[in-house]
Structures are given as C-alpha cells and as structure tokens.
Design brief:
The structure is a homodimer of 221-residue chains. The longest helix of chain A has 27 residues. Chain A is elongated, with a radius of gyration of 19 Å. In chain A, strand 10 and strand 11 form a beta hairpin. The first copy, chain A, has 8 helices and 11 strands.
Amino acid sequence: MEEREALFAEAFPFWKDLAPQQQSAILESSVEIFYPKGTVLHRAEQGCKGILLLCSGQLRTYIVSEEGREVTLYRVHGGEACVMAASCLMDAIVFDVLIEAIEDTRAITVPAAVFSRVIQDRPEAELFLYKTASERFSDIMWTMQQILFMGADRRVAIFLWDEYTRGGAVIALTHDEIARYIGSAREVVTKVLKYFAQEGIVSLSRGRVTVLDKEKLRALT
Amino acid sequence: MEEREALFAEAFPFWKDLAPQQQSAILESSVEIFYPKGTVLHRAEQGCKGILLLCSGQLRTYIVSEEGREVTLYRVHGGEACVMAASCLMDAIVFDVLIEAIEDTRAITVPAAVFSRVIQDRPEAELFLYKTASERFSDIMWTMQQILFMGADRRVAIFLWDEYTRGGAVIALTHDEIARYIGSAREVVTKVLKYFAQEGIVSLSRGRVTVLDKEKLRALT
C-alpha cells in the first residue's frame, strides 16, 4: 500500500491537497491489473473503466476507420497516466478511442465512480483530468497534421527518428506495424524504407529497421 | 461595466468564486475590440493575446499546411469563449492554430497576464481553460475522423456531384436518404452537410440540398 501511495503522490499533482479519507478511498478502491501484450482494454461501447496509472509496459490509443484502417493517436508509457478510459468523467469529451496493451502492461486503475466523488469538491482533480487529456489532444493534433499535410517520406523519417531517440538504432517493427503507427499504407512505407536504404540512411532485414546514418535521418524530419 | 460584468458572470463558471479584487482586475484590464470580417487576429508567432469572449460575430480556427492548404477546425459564435488565443496559459498545449474573424466580430479580451495571476490561486479558472480547450479538441477530433480519415466528406461530395450532373443544383433528398445511398449514418451526413454549408458549398433546407459552388464541390470528389 505504501508503494501505491508513492505512485499516486507522484502521478497526481493534487494528491497532497486531498483529505485523508479521500486518499484512503482512492487507495482502497484501486486495483492492480495485468494486461498481456495484445489485450484491447478499452472500447467506446465498454463504458468507463477509470484512470489508469502505468507501472510498466506500454499502451497504444488508436481509432479505426469503417474500412478497418487504424491510426495510432498516442502511446502511454510506464509512470504516465491514461485518462481516456475515464472519458465519462469529462463531459467536454465526446470523442472515443480504443486502447491496446502493446507490451505486457501492469496498471493501477482508480475506478471512475471513486474519482468522480473526489472531483466534486476538488477542482484540482478535474483539472488534472482535462490537463492530461489536453496534452494528449495536443499530441493527436500533431499526428493528424502529419497525416494530413506531410509527405510520407517525412512521416516515416519522423517516426524512425522518434523510435531511434527513444530506443536506439535497432527498431524491431515490421513495415506493416510502422504503416499503422503513421496512418499510412504498408506499400507506401516499404517504398519509403527502400529509398532510405538506397540512401544509406537505414538497413532493412526481416521485422527490423536499423538506423545507419542518424544525421541524414534527422535532416529529413 | 455592469454589462461586461454580466457577460463574465455568464461566460466564466468560476466568476462567483473570485475575490472582489480579482473580479475588478479582470474587469478593468479587459478591452473590447472590433475585428472587421477577414481579420486574422491570431497566429502562432504572435504570442498570447488572452481569452476572447465573443459579443457578436464569428471566429474560425484553422490550420494551414506547408503548401497553403487550409483545414477549418472549429468555429466560435457570439456568447462563447475562445481560449486558443490564450494557449500560452496552457502549457499542456503545444499545438498552434490561426484564428480569423469570418464575420464582423466584437470581442472582450481578458489579457493573458491578468488571467495568469487569477489561475495561480484559482484552479477553477485553469479548469475552465482546459475544459473549454478539450471541448474544442473533441470537436476537432470528430471532424478529422469523419472528414479526413473516414472519407465521409468525399463520399457525400461524390454523391452530390453525381446528382448535380444528372439533375441540376437542387437535390430533393433528405439526409436520411443520402445516408442510405452512400451507406453511412444520417448523423454523419448531417454533420458533413453542415460543414459543406459553412464552407459555402451548399445551402440546406427541409428535404433539399442546393449546390451553390460546383467548383468547390468537384474539388472534394
């Protein structure tokens, strides 16, 4: 319980302002859940899960078109909060998304009903929700702008650069996975990657892209 | 001044919770500005204007691609608040937009610096900003998803263009009928048609869509 309290104190900027009984309500109602890689843990029609604090792993938030095309909107990493599964608490948000665990993920969930009671006399708690959501929306807008406005080569380069700065030169993703992340078609990604390989920017092998020339890659972003 | 106070009390849900000196700071620093139709009143690089409360008229918020292509994100009408010109107050928002008066517009502006001081001891004021921004983002996401990702606008445009070339500018069909023709939902068709009407492409009346700008319509197909 002490470990969990430390997590809340870290993740919730309003934690120290809560009354002791509000803190215990959150502590006692929260549950740790393990989501194996590949689990779709939230869908629009499933209603309101609550606020997820990620202990480890990674979530992906995405939308799906009528034709089944997916666009990844943003990712949530260990130590971060995912508030979109609590969108019922935010009446300003009518838009809905799907959430999938893309790694084995452990998360603490604070039930929406409990958080809702805290919100009633703590505007700071509601502010936390909307502020976190706005940060994500800001990311989403960025993604949308990439998809709408930018050339595919630039989008692939930006994606590879982000992966490179986060996890190093070897990017273990298929062309299809990259295409889904950037909201493009696999064929487009394959073309762009072949072009990058010819230019000596990356090398390609099965299920993996290795960045060879990071300066050239950065120049493309 | 009394009229302005009534406007603030109506637009700001936190107004009644402010200390009298906070209310007077806002009242005394706010200015009424007239923006003739066509004025671009906010750009990313111009910094932070403040919070705009629209007395009359209409604003359009939009983004522009590198090639000059514009996408309208949402509109703000009389009686509503526009917070995107105060995005400097919201450090969670890194995304930026342009704002244009599309009608002659009168607006009361509360300077960012004054609002910033109120935020410091009133989380309700910051909540108002983020909540309003989230509402807009939620609209934007919907527009993006329908218009750009799902291709609903294209399908409606293609359908209208076919009808236009076959039977002339007046298309005597309900939204429900159009939805069934293109295999979509009535709500989606209604939203797309409203968007087209705002852009001056069509006009709408009961059971009828009239094509006003055939070039713009064709460009969408």
